[in-house]
């Protein structure tokens, strides 16, 4: 019986010239799109919009983002009850699964990275299942598939699967074993036999192998346990602002936060890139942008907002501790409001604060993405943020 790590060296697709991940990492500032695969998107507001959770709408967004040169797309994973977070809009009652969504998108896209968010500790998942599914998607997509590993921070989710919530740091110990075993299946040229604390495998084998060593690995975290995990396993880490969504407070807090993550990765002799999620409210002038912002807030579904905020306070996640109730109305880990020039200036400041990129969200996705491509992207290129 061998150790999970004996004679084993991880190889990241980031280090393989020609891999899709290596290619996008040549960009000075990464650009992703946070897909609205749940009803209400990121904003529990009743203001009119086109945003839709169905696959065809999200496929259109992904193809538009790919045509604009975006680097990646991914979606949220939730297990909400009937009625979602309630209110008139029954916020986030409906959604499509992010794993199935990215699998379907692999057949209709050609360049953009596709990241599947997955609760790996719920239900009967075994690392061998996901190793085979992931290797298949890697091959189908030409090496563009990746896993955003989620451990689950809400006890109601765990109860849906008939189990009590697992303590925060224990979840990361489980994730450590799960993902290390995934890597063995992907990278080893021999069958894997292992008996661990949480999972075991006798002569486990996955073929065919991923195209560029292994798929891209991602996690989202703000805790020390999550950062330690990311430093050993992830290629990208989705971060939030420790100071909430207001941009100036976020910019003051982010340099220390991102430095902490870089230092953890350096101890492992690895490079870890950070991405943060801004809600972008952009119009030709600052006044028009703030008028749009205020219209979203004025149309808030108060019951849905209250329930959504209360739910965030019940979770043991440490990523959103600085976020306030009213910041949930518009949504986003941070909020960028202004003219195209102001949006680009904020992104430059985020880069200076240690963020390696953004995965943007919008209120009215299709037209707002189109305007972003028309008005903001050219300025990002002029500013040296994009090639």
UniProtKB/TrEMBL annotation:
UniProt xrefs under PANTHER family: ALKANESULFONATE MONOOXYGENASE, ALKANESULFONATE MONOOXYGENASE-RELATED
Organism: Erwinia typographi
Nucleus keyword on record: no
Keyword Chloroplast annotated: no
SUPFAM superfamilies, sorted: Bacterial luciferase-like
GO molecular function: monooxygenase activity; oxidoreductase activity, acting on paired donors, with incorporation or reduction of molecular oxygen
The protein, known as: Luciferase
CDD domains, sorted: Alkanesulfonate_monoxygenase
Keyword terms, alphabetized: Flavoprotein, FMN, Monooxygenase, Oxidoreductase
Domain Luciferase-like: 32-356
